[in-house]
Q: What sequence folds into this?
């Protein structure tokens, strides 16, 4: 007999069990869906003025609310950091892209752990949390099979993830990550990423609801659309043939008039003049008109197709009787993109390498634009049309870069279906709004880390039908992007466009009364000098408060200082045959340097296939065996130099590969070789020109070529049929253009997000 007087009984029958309660959301908390579009301008949606078919998104607007005075940061990673943290992007360490860490607290390239994210908070309160699509909130140097994974989606609050980690990807063959590991890019007929993302979102929600009916969920769906490349199924491309032959001037005017008619913009709003560099449509030649119209058709098809996927999600929620009890927030991360340049492009490698593609060359591929063989983006004229009636674009702190569409849909909580709200708000206000609706207070301490105050404010006050004329709860908001700056306060806005190298204190600012001047057409800086001074002083005060300083317009230094290739390579990079697909950010850097690519193989006379392939049809390199010959191809933006061995390979074990010797800037001699024991035999050589900065828009495969193949000479994946032990990249340290290359990389990184 036990003498115990406290604690459990001797047996289970004599003891009382207890369990820690599972966290559950507050009663009446809705499900939450956040849909993020990429590079979609203020007027692109049908319900915001365009003639692009977006009936499903329009349906959300017709039974929800449209916000016409909603603002973002002008760039991708910063907006997403604000959206998921409820704090300003400088406050949480995301001054611009997640690509890099500058060593300053305002630009670490990740969201600070002192800013618990929306999925982290919701998961702690009993929500299932699911993410599909674009992430771009982890340092790209960490986006590899080796991690670290601290800031991948699963480590920042999501239970499941299916998407891509970088800023953009091929829509027909994306570089995908599931949870914490990369998977092979899809290589199947009829595949499109947008469809896959919604399929996965539906699957995640369905699995949860089947196993735990009624459990609350947060689904974050971040489309690659409508970031370049603008790619859509053929049926959608066919739908828009000829739609934009009238050009961007006529289209802007048409969309502007629709905005006036529907009340998206106030009656006094003016259509801003053409941005600098945008030519009058009537002054273009016929080749230009045909090419530019086709590029806009591809964009419209891309957005239309995306809308259909949103419709599939809505229909699923409705069928499962979940729609009325789900808060849906749909927004874009910034204004329409200017990265296509003045003439647009069908291959973004040209943009990244500071090479202009001639209109006469691009128009030869007119019927292929929007398909899998091109990475196309439209010209400035169509980007400005996408921001109608506003000025400038993504990256800029004028309204064209920061004023974006927002729709909130919640039948159980919004009693003014189809309402339009013009209260001034910022993307940091989305998280507080969702938490307010759910009934959760942001934690003061999360997982042992003291939390920064949430800097956004709830927009829930705008939900009632009588809230149309209610004053905004946001009295001011600052902006800073790459030195471009702006400040809004009580209807006034001051803004300046920075030029690299100029003193920040000496720049000229413009001043606008936004309550009377929707499109920033009338600069009042000369008429109101005291007001302008007050606004500039306010900007500096806000900069001190929200960790904006130091201001930083560096390009070269940022990228050179942090890259591993600043020091001579000390050992080869070896990849085994079963190496998973490697995203382009982790592919060995062969730019403008001597290198060797070697493979250790055991072959028979019939052996064939790819040893290593890096890139896609738009550009890259590949080493393969075909018809008994060793072949190296250098794909220079779609035009290949092909070197085939001058004799058949002998069966057996050997090392074979290609050696590239740099003889001038971005020029050298490629030599094929085979090594048996101590004997190296040369199998032919050829002079090649190489791309100076970015080699490819796609990653690397070992032993096969997945996705859009580098070469037209074989059908993918063209897997190697011999024995492949490994492939090695041996890089020489004979680059002398690190500074120049890094400068270009700093500029181009902005477009790749």
A:
């Amino acid at each position: 007999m036990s003498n115990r007087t406290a604690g459990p009984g001797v047996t289970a029958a004599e003891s009382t069990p207890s369990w820690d309660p599972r966290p559950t959301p507050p009663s009446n908390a809705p499900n939450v869906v956040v849909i993020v579009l990429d590079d979609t301008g203020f007027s692109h949606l049908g319900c915001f003025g365009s003639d692009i078919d977006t009936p499903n998104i329009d349906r959300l607007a017709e039974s929800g609310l449209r916000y016409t005075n909603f603002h973002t940061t002008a760039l991708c990673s910063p907006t997403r950091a604000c959206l998921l943290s409820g704090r300003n992007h400088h406050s949480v360490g995301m001054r611009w892209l997640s690509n890099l860490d500058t060593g300053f607290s305002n630009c670490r390239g990740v969201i600070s752990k002192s800013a618990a994210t929306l999925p982290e908070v919701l998961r702690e309160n009993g929500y299932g949390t699911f993410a599909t699509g674009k992430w771009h909130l982890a340092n790209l140097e960490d986006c590899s099979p080796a991690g670290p994974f601290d800031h991948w989606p699963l480590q920042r609050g999501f239970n499941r993830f299916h998407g891509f980690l970088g800023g953009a990807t091929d829509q027909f063959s994306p570089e995908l990550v599931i949870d914490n590991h990369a998977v092979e890019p899809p290589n199947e007929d009829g595949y499109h990423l947008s469809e896959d993302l919604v399929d996965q979102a539906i699957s995640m929600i369905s699995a949860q609801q089947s196993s735990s009916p009624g459990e609350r969920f947060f689904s974050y769906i971040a489309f690659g659309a409508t970031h370049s490349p603008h790619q859509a199924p053929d049926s959608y491309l066919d739908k828009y043939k000829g739609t934009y032959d009238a050009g961007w001037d006529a289209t802007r005017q048409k969309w502007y008039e629709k905005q006036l008619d529907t009340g998206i913009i106030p009656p006094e709003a003016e259509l801003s003049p053409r941005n600098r560099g945008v030519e009058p449509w009537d002054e273009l030649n016929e080749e230009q008109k045909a090419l530019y119209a086709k590029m806009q058709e591809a964009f419209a098809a891309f957005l239309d197709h995306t809308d259909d996927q949103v419709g599939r999600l809505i229909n699923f929620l409705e069928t499962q009787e979940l729609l009325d009890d789900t808060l849906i927030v749909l927004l874009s991360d910034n204004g329409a993109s200017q990265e296509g340049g003045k003439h647009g492009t069908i291959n973004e490698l040209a943009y990244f390498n500071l090479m202009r593609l001639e209109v006469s060359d691009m128009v030869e591929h007119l019927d292929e634009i929007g398909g899998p063989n091109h990475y196309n983006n439209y010209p400035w004229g169509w980007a400005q049309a996408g921001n109608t009636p506003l000025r400038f674009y993504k990256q800029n702190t004028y309204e064209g870069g920061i004023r974006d569409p927002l729709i909130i849909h919640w039948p159980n909580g919004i009693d003014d279906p189809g309402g339009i709200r013009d209260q001034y708000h910022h993307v940091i206000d989305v998280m507080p709004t969702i938490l307010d609706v759910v009934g959760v207070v942001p934690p003061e301490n999360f997982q042992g880390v003291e939390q920064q105050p949430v800097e956004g404010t709830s927009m829930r006050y705008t939900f009632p039908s009588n809230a149309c004329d209610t004053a905004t709860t946001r009295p001011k908001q600052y902006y800073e992007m790459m030195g471009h700056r702006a400040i809004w306060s009580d209807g006034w806005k001051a803004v300046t466009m920075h030029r690299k190298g100029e003193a920040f204190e000496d720049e000229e600012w413009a001043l606008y009364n936004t309550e009377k001047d929707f499109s920033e057409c009338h600069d009042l800086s000369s008429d109101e000098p005291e007001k302008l001074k007050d606004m500039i002083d306010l900007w500096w005060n806000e900069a001190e408060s929200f960790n904006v300083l130091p201001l930083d317009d560096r390009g070269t230094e940022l990228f050179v200082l942090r890259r591993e290739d600043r020091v001579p390579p000390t050992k080869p990079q070896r990849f085994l045959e079963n190496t998973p697909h490697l995203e382009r950010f982790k592919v060995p850097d062969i730019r403008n340097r001597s290198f060797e690519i070697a493979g250790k193989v055991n072959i028979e006379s019939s052996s064939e296939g790819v040893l290593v392939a890096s890139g896609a049809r738009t550009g890259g390199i590949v080493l393969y065996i075909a018809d008994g010959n060793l072949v190296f191809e250098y794909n220079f933006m779609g035009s290949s130099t092909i070197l085939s061995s001058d004799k058949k390979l002998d069966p057996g074990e050997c090392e074979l590969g290609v050696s590239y010797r740099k003889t001038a800037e971005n020029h050298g001699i490629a030599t094929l070789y085979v090594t048996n024991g101590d004997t190296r035999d040369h199998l032919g050589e050829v002079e090649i020109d190489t791309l100076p900065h970015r080699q490819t828009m796609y990653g690397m495969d070992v032993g096969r070529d997945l996705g859009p193949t580098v070469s037209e000479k074989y059908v993918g994946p063209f897997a190697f049929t011999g024995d492949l032990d490994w492939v090695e990249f041996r890089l020489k340290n004979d680059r002398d253009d690190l500074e120049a290359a890094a400068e270009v990389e700093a500029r181009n990184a902005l477009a790749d997000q």
